[in-house]
């Protein structure tokens, strides 16, 4: 197969290297028949990858990155019954068995069997079960009949591939954040973070019927892009009084629903890192009995944290404020399978132009290093890797 992939070398450094061809076997070497080998059609650089590359997790050098994968089935195990060679499929970033209690209840983000160290598995990610990542030319996907979303028509899918590639993670993640924040018809919504997940959350809020969708960030380029695609930008560098800035847009300092698409590397108005600041702001601006969706990533161990407590994932939250206001919070990895089929239909029927909303930008696999550097610098783009030149063609 001549496989190549994006490999984490150490803090601040990735390389595109020759890597082993995928095999129908688990990370501990057991042969599996419920998996498929995919020729990767598209695979995206994610902000979650950047946390590892910045050295903000316990990721070990040599990890093949990539959990946002769309591909073509080129080989399948004997137990795979619902997929055929040549099918184009979306891969949820969750590795899920489909058999445990959590999977059977739809909570595929916390599958109990695919990761010996904790609930939940993912491709190419630290502490997520050792499953090899898909920023590569080829990748293996286990429990294929359960996990994979087959696109119903190959030609139609390829015409929409810039949009459909977002189904593996950021679009369902943004949608999950909006759903868990209680967004509905007429909602006033604030999204923290104008990166790709924040934009996906904003797009999701809009399709769910929100009346106003605001996005807050310090990054001027990202805020301007958010404005161009129809959202209300909130420039956090202008003031440390978020409620006042919201009131300038809506007439009131509170919102019905808030979505944290930033996570643990959040920064305050002073420029320094304050890992709990977004969570605290959410509690301040969300109305009494309102809801807060938290798709932004928070980790159990952060070697680069600003203090000893944060290194263990302990944050200085004003939880009493949220309790006093009877707010609801929802955290955790998105169970992609709950949403990806409906979102696929919205894309195929021209209801959700997510590629334009997140400014999807296609680059070859061998330009991944430059893509990581550019994305880390805060450009208003979502980089989509094209390992075989299929998208460019």
From TrEMBL:
One of its GO terms (molecular function) is formaldehyde dehydrogenase (NAD+) activity. InterPro entries: ADH-like_C (IPR013149), ADH-like_N (IPR013154), ADH_Zn_CS (IPR002328), GroES-like_sf (IPR011032), HCHO_DH_non_GSH (IPR014184), NAD(P)-bd_dom_sf (IPR036291). NCBIfam families: fdhA_non_GSH. It is an enzyme of class 1 (oxidoreductase). Its cofactor is Zn(2+). Keywords: Metal-binding, NAD, Oxidoreductase, Zinc. It comes from Paracoccus limosus. Gene3D superfamilies: Medium-chain alcohol dehydrogenases, catalytic domain (3.90.180.10), NAD(P)-binding Rossmann-like Domain (3.40.50.720). Belongs to the zinc-containing alcohol dehydrogenase family. Residues 34-152 form the Alcohol dehydrogenase-like N-terminal domain. This is Formaldehyde dehydrogenase, glutathione-independent. SUPFAM superfamilies: GroES-like, NAD(P)-binding Rossmann-fold domains. The keyword Zinc applies. Signal peptide: none annotated. Residues 196-264 form the Alcohol dehydrogenase-like C-terminal domain. It comes from the Bacteria.
